[in-house]
Every structure is written in structure tokens, then in C-alpha cells.
Amino acid sequence: MIKTLNRFMIVITALAILITACSAAPTATPSAPLPTAVAVSPKPTAAPSDPSTSSALAPIKSDWFAVYAKAAANWNITADAGDVNKFTITPKTPSGNEKKVFVLYPRKSSAYDTAISTILDVFYNKKVPATFTIVNFDRKNDKGLAALGLAESLKSDLIFSMGSESTDFVYLNYKGKSIPVVTICSKDPVLLNYVKDYNSGSGTNIAFTSLNVPIEVQMAYLKQLRPNLRNIAVMFADSNTSSKETQVKPLKDASSVYKINVIDVVVLQDAKAKQELEAAMPGVIEEMKKTDPSLQDSIFWITGSTPVFNEIATINTMAGKIPVLSVVPDVVKEGDASAVLSIGVSFESNAYIGALYGSDILLGVAKAGDLKVGVVSPPDIAINFKRAKAIDLKIPFSFFESASFIYNYDGKTVRKGGEEVRQP
User: Fold this and answer.
1) What is the DSSP letter of 150?
2) Three-state SS for 272?
3) In this structure, which long-range contacts are made by residues 324-328, counting pairs with CB atoms below 8 Å and at least 24 apart in sequence?
4) Beta strand residue intervals within 310-407, DSSP E
5) Which of 210, 191, 190 is nearest to 200 (CA)?
6) With 60 as the cut, is the pLDDT of residue 42 above it?
7) Average pLDDT for the chain
8) Which residues on adjacent β-strands are paired with residue 413?
9) How confident is the model at residue 422, as a pLDDT?
10) What is the dihedral of CA 400, 401, 405, 406, to 10 degrees?
11) What is the distance between the alpha carbons of residues 19 and 21, in angstroms, rounded to a whole number?
């Protein structure tokens, strides 16, 4: 599921199709370094994966909790009879000495479906004996405090804080307490001032991971894609503080260095994201034309704001031939409802690091406060060649070489996690 040493291998027929969409002259991958952190070992796979089963959801009746069927197959997943916001997960083959893991959710998100499925897979494959209690505190302070109290009463051995909202809540309300915490699907803790740097542990009970790629690395890739880049329309939800602090602000701070114009596309009401984007984007395009009449040196750049990236189909329609990129690789997916390209950290890769951290803490290999910020290096690259063809975008060959996720001219998966995917 994570990039492996044979990531460049793919069926020859797929290579022949995809390579024609790349630029004629290969170029070197940008060399701007990511902060030093954990080295993630490649996860072995026995055979090319089957796209028809990899993302199917298990039949769980819940409006906020979901697990991929493939991951759920090894676990018993039980809804709490008296609390719709609580689930328990136990191994189908218990060892008798399971550790107790508490997972704090703030709300529903497809990102969390991916993350919890990844955690379950890692624990199963590494034979980490564990049971899980999953609680959704629904972004309410009293429910969050009650959930943390439950984690303590259960004598939990570890807490996973799922998402930036959970991580912020835990940081404010549980830092320095008894149960070790590992953050999952959360924005950069250095930019949010949770820790002082990437190479030091927190010194507390919290081990941090990061969904972010430093802006200098992002810009190195963007400048290779568009050497004369003039305009970036950055798309975010006003409600998403972490995206504003760790993605929007760094881009604006760097704009003068890279001589680019940054134009805000802001969703003010999450529930009306579609209507607001449809109303705002035509004006943004007119603004772009002031410095880039042909629109050849402009892009739309989607941040990690769920209300925004959930409207990718709307964004593509309104953007026309202007490339739509995302910092979230999961927004690049099969079919037409996809960004054309992403340089970022997938939810799967981030959860994989978090699961390794959790495993090491539970097995006594590491202490939460000693662990460096978990980052993915190099970043995950995802490409949808169907979208690239539709907007006449040439993809640098080096992007193709190092991509973790590739979708061909038909929008079908041919590489996932650096591995060949067999089409039926």
C-alpha cells in the first residue's frame, strides 16, 4: 500500500499508453528535501492488487463510520447497542493479551475510512494484538471530554486522534496525560506550533504525524509542471483552520519569492460549497486573465478541505482547460471526477506511518514523546491521464516515473501505492 522499491514497474501495455501523455524531454525530480523523520519500510504485497475489491466498503450501518471490506475481513466490528457514536473492533483470532486502542473521531470523512482501514491492515499484518474502541465526539467539547474519560476508564494503552480537529482537541485537553497518543490524518504540527521542529519529539505523551508537504517542495514540482507559473487559485474552506494555517498561509508567504499571484477561492458555508464554487470561479478566472490572458500559466490548487475537494466534479467543470491540482492525492482517482495531479501525502501513507508509531508504542519499542514528526518522503504523486488528456496537459516524465498512483487514459487504476494493478 505504500511506495515500494519496485514502484517503477508496471505492465508494458499500460506504460506504452501512458508515456505518450508525458512531455518529450525527461527532467529530474525536484530535489528540495522534506524534513527528516521516520523512514517508512515498504509494505510487501504478494501480487498485483485487484481494483474491484480494494476500496469496497464493508456493510456497516452507520452515518459516520466505515471500513474497507478487505480490511474488515480480519476483524469483528460491532456497533454499540446504546450509542450510535461508538464501535468496537476485535480480532477474529484473539491472542488473549490484546492491547486496548482508543480512536477518537470528530465526524464522518472518507479520509478516516481509508485511515482506519490502513491501521487495521497494519496491525493484522504485523500481528499486533489489539482491540479498538472507536468514538465520534461530533466536534462537541463535552462529548470529547467524556470520550477521553472513557478512554481512561477502559485503561486504554493508546489513543489515535483521527483528523486535525481531534488532534487539536487532544492537544488542548490531554497533552501531558497518562495515555500515549498518535495523530492520524492531521496537518503539520510544526506550522501549528504543536512542536518546535520536525526532528525532535514532543516530549509529551503525543507522537505527531503530518499530512503536509513543505511549500518549497510543492513549488519545485509546480514550477517543473508550469515553469512560467503566474497564478495559483488556492481553494479552501473557511471552517478549516488547519488548512488555512498549514497550506494557504505558507503559499501566500512564498508568493513573492516565486513571483506568483495567489487568488483565494473560499467556501464560507460548507453545506453550500457547490453553489459558492460555481459563483466564485468565473470571477477568479477573469482575475487570472489579467496577468495570463491565455491561461497557460495558471492553476487551481485544492487544499485538504473536505467540503472543497468533495466538489471536484463541479470544480473541473468550472475550470475548463485550467489544470486542477490537489495537495491530497486521494482527490486524484478513477474516472473524470478527479484532480489531474497531486503532489502530497495520501491518507493511506500517513495512516501507515501512524500505525507503525502506534505499534512501536504498544510493543514497548518507543515512547510517544521521543518520536520525530512522521512525514512521508518523497511525497506521493498521483496522476490521472484521462484528465490530463482532456485539458491538453503534458506531465513531466519524472512525475510519471515516481508516481505512487496512476490512472490511464480510460481513467482506470494501473498503479496504486507504487504497485502494478491488474485490470479485470
Assistant:
1) H
2) helix
3) 324/299, 324/300, 324/387, 325/222, 325/299, 325/300, 325/301, 326/301, 326/302, 327/212, 327/213, 327/218, 327/247, 327/301, 327/302, 327/303, 328/111, 328/211, 328/302, 328/303, 328/304
4) 324-326, 341-344, 380-384, 405-407
5) 190
6) no
7) 89
8) 407
9) 81
10) 40
11) 5
Mean pLDDT value across residues 69-84: 96
What sign for the dihedral angle of Cα 416, 417, 422, 424? negative
Q: Exposed, middle or buried by CB within 10 Å (0-12, 13-18, 19+), for 26? A: exposed
Pairing of strands 341-344, 380-384: antiparallel
DSSP 169-229: HHHHHHTTSSS-EEEES---TTTTTSSS-SSS--SSSEE-B-----HHHHHHHHHHH-TT-
- Tell me if residue 342 falls in helix, strand or coil: strand
What CA–CA distance (Å, rounded) separates 104 from 307?
21
Gap between the Cα atoms of 402 and 380, Å rounded:
8
- The residues pairing with 105 across neighbouring beta strands, listed in sequence order, are 136
CB atoms within 10 A of CB 359: 21
- Assess contact for 223 and 255: CB atoms under 8 A: no
> How much is the average pLDDT of 58-72?
95
What is the rounded CA–CA span in Å between residue 398 and residue 67?
34
Give the three cell numbers for residue 98: 490484546
Confidence at residue 217, expressed as pLDDT on a 0 to 100 scale = 92
- Please name the amino acid found at residue 422: R
Q: Which residue has the cell 488473549?
A: 96
Among 60, 148, 159, smallest CA distance to 108 is for 60
DSSP state of 21: T
Q: CB-side exposure of 378: number of CA atoms within 13 Å?
A: 22
Residue where the block lists cell 453550500:
272
Tell the residue number behind the cell numbers 514502484, with chain if given.
7
Residue 103 in grid coordinates: 480512536
Q: How far apart are CA 367 and CA 360, in angstroms?
A: 8
pLDDT of the residue at 423:
74
pTM of the model as a whole: 0.83
Backbone angles phi, psi at 326, to 5 degrees: -140, 145
Amino acid letter, residue 155: K
Q: How far apart are CA 210 and CA 191, in angstroms?
A: 10
Give the chain's largest Cα–Cα span: 67
- Please classify residue 216 by burial: count the beta carbons closer than 10 Å to its beta carbon, then call 0-12 exposed, 13-18 middle and 19+ buried: middle
